[in-house]
Please model this.
Amino acid sequence: YNMIQRTLYYWSKMYSEQIQNRDNYSKLERTVCINILNFKYLKNDKYHNAYRLKEITSNEELTDLQEIHFIELPKFNEIGNKEYIENVEKMDALEKWLEFLVEPESNTVRQLELSNEEIKLAKSELYRLSMDSKEREQYNMREKAIYDRISALENSRENGIKEGIEKVVKESLSQGLEISLISKITGLNEEEILKIKNTIK
Model:
């Protein structure tokens, strides 16, 4: 697969394309390349390996500007997620996403959906993308109807709040309270209060 060569090529391309001719090198920022592999590649049992530039003998890190990750899903599927099946609270962020990538319909992912909004959204998007065009259109229409309903409820709430404030202003005026005091109570400015006053019959 020439994964090492390809990875270094894509990393260097991402890194160098940050600046144009005559730009200052100081504009170059940390670049991280992440390889998610659906096959075993590296000769160790770890499903996640991360690399940076280091001095050969002292192991001193030269910089964190270059960072390359290899995530091997088959290794994770074999050893990475077994101990977390019964307790998703012990899973870190990477493990949660890898579980989703490996088996989005697993019981573990269903548990994660209850507490992790990002996983829930990703599962919903995966479901949407797996539909045919007709199903996707129906899904989008249902989603639009839900958003329209939420928007209508929000507008009703805002209108209710506005009506409540107007009622407070009218009652305060009828009791002879000063406009400056009413303004402090309601948050309305003097002009808005006078407009409400003019509607009182």
